[in-house]
Structure formats: structure tokens, C-alpha cells
């Protein structure tokens, strides 16, 4: 399954979703789509504020470049621009199919893909 991140200018980026590590988080995200939010770039991560109402599903605290994760404690969807240790438990969602350096701040819609 894929999610599509659609930016205000019409640019779209695909996310390959993997359910094995965080099945509850992934199912809630897919069920809630389409979602409108905004993306913020902060250092090695792109941040999308989002409350999915889930708790931690893993003990991991890091994300690899291009990985999409959810941090239950701060209610944020994060796309790692570089490898990063976030210090809080993360729920892995999948991987960006494209260059994370091309992500831009601003309004964003998260929708289901094929």
C-alpha cells in the first residue's frame, strides 16, 4: 500500500507503507486519510503535526534517511531527511519513494494511493 503526500503546488510524493512494525498506527493513518495539515522542516526532519490517538508500538528511537515514522508522545508524523535519533519511541510507517531533500514546508494533504 502507498500513501501520497500532496503539496499545495500540486507536487506529489509517494510513501511505501509497511504494516509489520506498527499495525495500529498504520491502520489509523490509512483510515483517517485524506488528511490536511502542514509540513515544517526542522534540521534533519520534516514534521507534520498529527494526532492519531495511538501509543508506542516499538522501542525504537531512531529513523533512517527517507523513513516515515510517527511519534506518539509529540503527536507528529516525521520524515527523516537524514539518519536521526529522536529520543522518543517511534512507530515506523514506511519509506519515502523519492528524495527527502525535495520536501518543502507548507500545506500538505495525506491521501491513500494505489
UniProtKB/TrEMBL annotation:
Domain of life: Archaea
Entries under InterPro entries matching the protein: Cyclophilin-like_dom_sf (IPR029000)
Annotated protein name in UniProt: Cyclophilin TM1367-like domain-containing protein
Organism encoding this protein: Thermocladium modestius
Lineage: Archaea, Thermoproteota, Thermoprotei, Thermoproteales, Thermoproteaceae
Amino acid at each position: 500500500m502507498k500513501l501520497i503526500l500532496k503539496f499545495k503546488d500540486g507536487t506529489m510524493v509517494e510513501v511505501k507503507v509497511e504494516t509489520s512494525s506498527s499495525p495500529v498506527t498504520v491502520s489509523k493513518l490509512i483510515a483517517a486519510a485524506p488528511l490536511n495539515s502542514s509540513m515544517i522542516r526542522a534540521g534533519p526532519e520534516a514534521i507534520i503535526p498529527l494526532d492519531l490517538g495511538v501509543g508506542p508500538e516499538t522501542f525504537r528511537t531512531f529513523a533512517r534517511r527517507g523513513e516515515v515514522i510517527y511519534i506518539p508522545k509529540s503527536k507528529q508524523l516525521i520524515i527523516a531527511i537524514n539518519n536521526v535519533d529522536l529520543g522518543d519511541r517511534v512507530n515506523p510507517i514506511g519509506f519515502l519513494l523519492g528524495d527527502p531533500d525535495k520536501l518543502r514546508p507548507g500545506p500538505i494533504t495525506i491521501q491513500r494511493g494505489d
